Amino acid sequence: MDSTTSELPTRTPLRATASNGLKIVVVGGFGVGKTTMVRAVSEIRPLSTEEVMTQAGATVDVNNGAYAKTTTTVAFDFGRISLDEQMVLYLFGAPGQERFWFLWDSLFAGTLGAVVLVDTRRLADSWYAIDRLEHHGTPFIVARNNFEPPVHDLSAVRGALDLSPDVPLIDCDARNRDSAKQVLITLVNHLYALSTARENTP
Amino acid sequence: MSRRLLDDEDPDRLYTVTGGRSRTDAIALDLVTLIVSESEPAPGMQSEHVRILRMCRRPVAVVEISAELAMPVSVVKILLADLLDTGRVSARHPVSGAAGSSLPSGDFLRKVLVGLHNL
């Protein structure tokens, strides 16, 4: 899955002036290329960490004696991009499986937006993620990752995903830095359009 | 510590690290809140606190500290809340430029776009 060969440093410190962390989440099924995309644009080698939660969905209470029996772990990867002197964008690769969404509010509240990364051979994997993002009111775009040349045209994909015409849908190659960068730009352009439309509404 | 904490299912250690506490004020820390050390480690400090203070001489996001310590985010937040209380670290909270609505302003997003185009 990780086909890039460039060696990124693990611990490059941020600028001393860095003051504002931003979040964008890449959601997708197993093996769709989330980490590959994060790696393609990140200034550090992607790191991974985890969060624990109780089955009820709250984050862990370590005072709870039944800790080990009632918790589940969700792991996710991330990389980062220093945008300017102050702003640092953190890019998270997150699994779209059901238990992950219990953690959305505690981990990803305040996320600028999301990229749903899809694999046309397994489109059904994305339905749940799209449904959850709509439920959480998180703006998103859909990017089809083409590790191999695509078989279907994008309008067929839009139909199969039952995607609203307002949601951008693009092709990408998650291994390619420029392509991954273009995915992020498409997302932020989409956010910009949504934001200015709202600002211009009396 | 090289083993992943949760791989060896050791809740006792988590309990020890946090002194058995859960803290609701720790929740105010975001994954991308940037932490900066305001002092050097002092003798007798808990080893996790020492590592955090050394790591954060330059700003480091909560999620990076979590990855570096190989500890769950919620546990790291509790450790950080202790250090914040005693003024040993400061926190730079994320500002999205969102006013009233959940979407950031056009001005804010333009800055993000400039940064992305410069990649």
From TrEMBL, chain A:
<dbReference type="GO" id="GO:0005525">
    <property type="term" value="F:GTP binding"/>
</dbReference>
<dbReference type="InterPro" id="IPR052705">
    <property type="entry name" value="Gliding_Motility_GTPase"/>
</dbReference>
<protein>
    <submittedName>
        <fullName>Signal recognition particle receptor subunit beta</fullName>
    </submittedName>
</protein>
<dbReference type="InterPro" id="IPR004130">
    <property type="entry name" value="Gpn"/>
</dbReference>
<dbReference type="InterPro" id="IPR027417">
    <property type="entry name" value="P-loop_NTPase"/>
</dbReference>
<comment type="similarity">
    <text>Belongs to the GPN-loop GTPase family.</text>
</comment>
<keyword id="KW-0378">Hydrolase</keyword>
<keyword id="KW-0342">GTP-binding</keyword>
<dbReference type="GO" id="GO:0016787">
    <property type="term" value="F:hydrolase activity"/>
</dbReference>
<keyword id="KW-0675">Receptor</keyword>
<dbReference type="Pfam" id="PF03029">
    <property type="entry name" value="ATP_bind_1"/>
</dbReference>
<keyword id="KW-0547">Nucleotide-binding</keyword>
UniProtKB/TrEMBL annotation, chain B:
<protein>
    <submittedName>
        <fullName>Uncharacterized protein DUF742</fullName>
    </submittedName>
</protein>
<dbReference type="InterPro" id="IPR007995">
    <property type="entry name" value="DUF742"/>
</dbReference>
<dbReference type="Pfam" id="PF05331">
    <property type="entry name" value="DUF742"/>
</dbReference>
